[in-house]
């Protein structure tokens, strides 16, 4: 092994390196030996970029940060390395070598031999050059398939761990409250049960690979006013408790997440980064979370610059530290010299530093970073000749065939067929008109946190590092005998209509027309979807609706395909398109998945994780609204969606029959068991997504008309039937009462087994009896769905 990635293990083992002692004892010994500056050094990171030559990382000079001098910082240690792979394009093997060399230097420079903890983004795959670009989280929600999402997360985590990364900044557990918000693509959907169950599966997968999962953004980011990024949140305490907090609670209790990231926003005037009641009182004292709280990038500095609750950097550091933020990311702005000086002069108690330090060192100890045999060289480079960096190039494959197969599975399960007059699947068309701005655009399948769209756009001329077949290419492979004629028509958001006549001509001459519309992901206004790409209405960007309407005026059957980061109003197309196919940034295999749905090779099974609006201006709207939030005679605005939450069609048919309920009444600490049969009565295999909604007609506080409390994917061959058994604990009927405590009240309930939030198939009317019961964080969080083996359905 090269000397520059070798750590000396011959020295006497210090108490903090003694693996026979408890982690707590090791950490206490280390804290006792540290100076104040050595303590605070473990509480911040440095934003770096790995070297594509295999040399040490270089500090990233962000426009919100001053230049960082590593030579000056490292003698006291370093808590984290920020995004070594997700800052510049770098060959994975050379990036891993660069990180290993830097870690060896960090450990050798500080007197305790402590390396940094390296973190990176992994919102839709490891955000590194050449790594698999999986579907975005909104597509995870569309799968209604926690198991597959968990397998995907495990694969992402293994790739990250193999190159030396320890922590992943995902998943996003924000529940969509306003689809105008640019970060909708990063969320899992508009329902907390769906977000919680899918998000928890992702956490389990990531953690199973040894990566510290980071839940974000805690809490209320998605409830910002008017869907504007970083705007104040207007949620009340009940909305926060019943809608926004449950996914985080589930991911901590059931997923074992080891880190939480605060939200940028304030709630009723209190910024999350300074909210002691939230970050310490609820998260730690009530829920028992014992991991680390990391700051969203620059969030501590924002206490001074954006929120105005701190006059100086030291004040901001003190507020965040007292609230419970353990680590400043991405840099050293407030927890560096300002914090040390504030502790030295008595403005901030050193006990607060020690509290955060104990958490960060405990995490490092559990990751093996304090062990005497710690090795900076990751597994992927073991046995490699490190003296020849050029020979390493291409050694590590972060986009393996297995990864791509998994990415395709997720993409196929996530495609939602919104409408179909029988035109789909396409029956060997001879002439296909392929139209629209996303039909021949490689990056149209990628979200804003994919490497090509997040980082690659800053390096023009650099190849994407992964294969990104356009839908035009995928259709040519899917329909080899068809003549496919392409016309762009208009851009995503440029408003240019000069190509409209050509698009109309091409469509008029075809047997079938496919128009591919939607978004371009980007950051801070550089796209139509993504962080900082908020919109005023849910009308299609640019002149896309004009193109769509012009094509609908023709006699050619038109299939509308969406590659987007949020749902859009589609105007006339809802009624007049031959079919509508919705895909939320489905990743590098997404065009093959869409082509498979169009041809019938794939039977669509995706379901909407967010409703598709009927009009562009009826936001914010969600199926979780109370009765007053739905259509009525007292307002001229009808928020009823064109396609509701949970909706999705198949190429086969399913019947739901034979509902039985074990008891009609159960105590407020009891449960109900529902049993019913689902049959595939169509001519091909398919997947039905069974959804269970709870309706509480009378409660002491206003409730949503209904809310999801269970679901399952049911795979059936033609003629097969399966008996399902669903156990629903009374705890799932709980809500936050008038006194702020969670309560289960006696009374009537409806349990609706449904194909979507607007399509109930079977309803069980039951009642809870006995006394009102108060619950705490140990309550049951899920229904249990069991499926008996499939059997051939009896002939009717």
From TrEMBL:
Recorded hits in Pfam families, A to Z, give: Fn3-like (PF14310), Glyco_hydro_3 (PF00933), Glyco_hydro_3_C (PF01915)
Query: Ranges for the Fibronectin type III-like domain?
Result: 688-757
Q: Which UniProt keywords apply?
A: Hydrolase
The molecular function terms in GO held by this entry are: hydrolase activity
InterPro entries, A to Z: Cellulose_deg_GH3 (IPR050288), Fn3-like (IPR026891), GH (IPR017853), Glyco_hydro_3_C (IPR002772), Glyco_hydro_3_C_sf (IPR036881), Glyco_hydro_3_N (IPR001764), Glyco_hydro_3_N_sf (IPR036962), Ig-like_fold (IPR013783)
**Protein origin, superkingdom:** Bacteria
User: What's the family?
Assistant: Belongs to the glycosyl hydrolase 3 family.
**Protein name in the entry:** Glycoside hydrolase family 3 C-terminal domain-containing protein
Q: Which organism is it from?
A: Streptomyces anthocyanicus
């Amino acid at each position: 092994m090269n000397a520059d990635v070798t750590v000396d293990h011959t020295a006497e083992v210090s108490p903090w390196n003694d693996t026979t002692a408890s982690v707590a004892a090791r950490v206490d010994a280390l804290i006792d030996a540290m100076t104040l500056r050595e303590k605070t050094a473990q509480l911040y990171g440095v934003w770096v970029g790995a070297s594509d030559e295999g040399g040490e990382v270089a500090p990233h000079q962000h426009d919100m940060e001053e230049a960082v001098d590593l030579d000056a910082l490292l003698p006291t240690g370093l808590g984290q390395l920020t995004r070594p792979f997700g800052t510049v394009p770098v060959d994975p093997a050379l990036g891993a070598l660069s990180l290993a060399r830097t870690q060896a230097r960090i450990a050798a420079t500080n007197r305790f031999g402590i390396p940094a903890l390296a973190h990176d983004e992994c919102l839709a795959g490891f955000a590194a050059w050449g790594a698999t670009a999986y579907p975005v989280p909104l597509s995870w929600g569309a799968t209604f398939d926690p198991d597959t999402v968990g397998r995907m997360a495990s694969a992402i985590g293994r790739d990250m761990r193999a190159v030396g990364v320890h922590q992943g900044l995902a998943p996003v557990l924000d529940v969509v409250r306003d689809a105008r918000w640019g970060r909708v693509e990063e969320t899992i959907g508009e329902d907390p049960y769906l977000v919680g169950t899918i998000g928890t599966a992702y956490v389990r997968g990531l953690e199973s690979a040894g990566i510290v999962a980071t839940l974000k953004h805690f809490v209320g980011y998605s409830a910002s006013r008017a869907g504007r990024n970083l705007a104040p949140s207007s949620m009340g305490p009940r909305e926060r408790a019943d809608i926004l907090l449950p996914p985080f609670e589930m991911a901590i209790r059931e997923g074992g997440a080891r880190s939480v990231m605060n939200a940028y926003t304030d709630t009723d005037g209190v910024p999350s980064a300074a909210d002691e009641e939230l970050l310490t009182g609820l998260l730690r004292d009530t829920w028992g979370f014992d991991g680390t709280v990391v700051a969203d990038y620059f969030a501590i500095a924002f206490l001074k610059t954006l929120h105005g609750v701190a006059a100086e950097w030291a004040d901001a550091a003190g507020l965040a530290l007292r609230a419970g933020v353990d680590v400043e990311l991405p840099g050293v702005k407030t927890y560096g010299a300002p914090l040390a000086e504030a502790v030295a002069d008595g403005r901030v108690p050193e006990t607060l530093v020690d509290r955060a330090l104990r958490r960060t060192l405990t995490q490092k100890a559990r990751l093996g970073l304090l062990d005497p045999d710690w090795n900076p060289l990751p597994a992927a480079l073991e046995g490699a000749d490190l003296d020849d960096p050029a020979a390493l190039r291409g050694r590590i494959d972060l986009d393996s065939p297995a990864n791509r197969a998994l990415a395709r599975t997720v993409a196929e399960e996530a495609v939602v067929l919104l409408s179909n007059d029988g035109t789909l699947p396409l029956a060997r068309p001879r002439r296909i008109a392929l139209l629209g701005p996303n039909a021949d655009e490689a990056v149209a399948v990628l979200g804003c946190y994919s490497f090509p769209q997040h980082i690659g756009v800053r390096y023009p001329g650099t190849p994407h590092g992964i294969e990104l077949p356009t839908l035009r290419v995928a259709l040519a492979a899917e329909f080899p005998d068809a003549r496919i004629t392409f016309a762009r028509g208009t851009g995503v958001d440029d408003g240019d209509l000069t190509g409209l006549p050509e698009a109309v001509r091409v469509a008029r001459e075809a047997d079938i027309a496919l128009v591919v519309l939607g978004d371009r992901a980007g950051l801070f206004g550089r796209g139509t979807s993504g962080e900082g790409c908020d919109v005023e209405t849910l009308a299609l960007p640019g002149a896309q609706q004009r193109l769509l309407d012009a094509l609908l005026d023709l006699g050619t059957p038109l299939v509308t395909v969406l590659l987007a980061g949020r749902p859009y109003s589609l105007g006339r197309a809802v009624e007049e398109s031959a079919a509508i196919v919705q895909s939320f940034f489905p990743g590098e295999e997404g065009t093959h998945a869409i082509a498979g749905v169009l041809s019938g090779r794939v039977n669509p099974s995706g379901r909407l994780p967010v409703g598709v609006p009927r009009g562009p201006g009826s936001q914010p709207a969600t199926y979780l609204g109370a009765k007053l939030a739905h259509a009525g005679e007292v307002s001229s605005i009808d928020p009823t969606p064109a396609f509701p939450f949970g909706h999705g069609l198949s190429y086969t048919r399913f019947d739901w029959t034979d509902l039985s309920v074990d008891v009609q009444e159960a105590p407020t600490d009891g449960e109900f068991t529902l049993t019913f049969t689902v049959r595939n009565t169509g001519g091909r295999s398919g997947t039905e997504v069974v959804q269970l909604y709870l309706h509480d007609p009378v409660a002491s506080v206003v409730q949503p008309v209904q809310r999801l409390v269970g679901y399952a994917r049911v795979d059936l061959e033609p003629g097969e039937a399966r008996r399902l058994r669903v156990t629903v604990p009374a705890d799932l009927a709980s809500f936050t009462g008038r006194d702020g405590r969670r309560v289960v009240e006696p009374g009537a309930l409806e349990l609706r087994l449904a194909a979507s939030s607007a399509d109930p198939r079977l309803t069980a009317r039951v009642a809870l009896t006995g006394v009102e019961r108060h619950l705490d964080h140990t309550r049951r969080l899920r229904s249990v769905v069991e499926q008996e083996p499939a059997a051939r359905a009896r002939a009717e």
